[in-house]
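Retro notes, structure queue

What went well: the backlog is down to a handful. What didn't: a couple of records were mislabeled last round, so from now on we paste the full input next to the output in the thread. Example, using ABC transporter substrate-binding protein from Streptomyces glycanivorans:
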Amino acid sequence: MPRPVRPAALAVAFTVLALTGCGAEVTAREGTDDAARAGGGRYPVTVENCGEKKTFERAPRRVVTNDVGITEIMFALGLEDHMAGYVMPDDKGDLTSVPWKDGYTKTEWLSKEQINKELVLDARADLVFAGWNYGFNEGDGFTPAELGRVGIDSYVLSESCRNGQGKARGVMSPLDALYTDLRNLGTVFDVEDRAEGLITSFRKEVAEAQAKAAKGADRPRVFLYDDGQDKPFTSGAFAGPHDIITKAGGDHIMKDLEDSWTTVGWETVVARDPEVIVINNYGDTTAEQKRKFLMSYKPLANVSAVRNDRIVVLDYVDLVESPRNPAAIRSLAAELRDLSS
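Corresponding output:
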């Protein structure tokens, strides 16, 4: 996610047509070659991904995904048959209680370690679906450009799109990022109806949660705590927790931070005095250990959430871009209502 994802023959050709702002624009054009005829005349198709227009001559057949949220986007779209496998650590919580849980039994878990070029080459991948700091990073030489040099295409998670301010990430609201990826992948894999059905269902679920949520001055101030003791790792306006908190009836105290997942200072948290803290549950440090730290850390002693013991736990996959985001909004909205009653 954020920080923590510690995590062939060329089967898909792409063409960079233009650089524009990242958005959900999707177009398709008819072709007359064999690949287009085999796809019923619908290919090639073009989608815009993080400001880059990418053209696919046919649906990728051996996709490798990195991390749980990205993997479940593919599963929710019913695309297991197009996957070579997925990569993610085994610290991502319950994988058996979601509607698309069968995807985990149908698809190979390629590695619990960090994704790398050798792994995707061994898997004969034709597409890697990952994100900046969700697998892609220059430090390890695992980038879309590097994969392109060995004939493997990439699709970048929209939550992780870089916005041109250094390595800061985020160019649209978190839920819009989810809907953009569903719609784009629906086009690439010829499952538009399923994608639109998911988007409609998710919008309805979010709207129903919002209708019952606190509004205006009644909204509690909420801080997302991911990890870190010297400085907290948290979420800004472009990471999943922003929409999850605000749609659930909370006032996200880091809403002015134009980044996705990043580090802030404890003094900022203290000054903004959150009334509720949401813990991101994943990794070697348990949610209970994180809670004990927050409750015992002296600089936070007078923060309202700590003083009143108003701490909520959500799983990692609820908070990163994933098809679990709408359910997380419903869950958090109920928690905030209970805390305020």
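Agreed that this is the format going forward. Reviewer comment attached to the example: The chain is about 35% helix and 20% strand.
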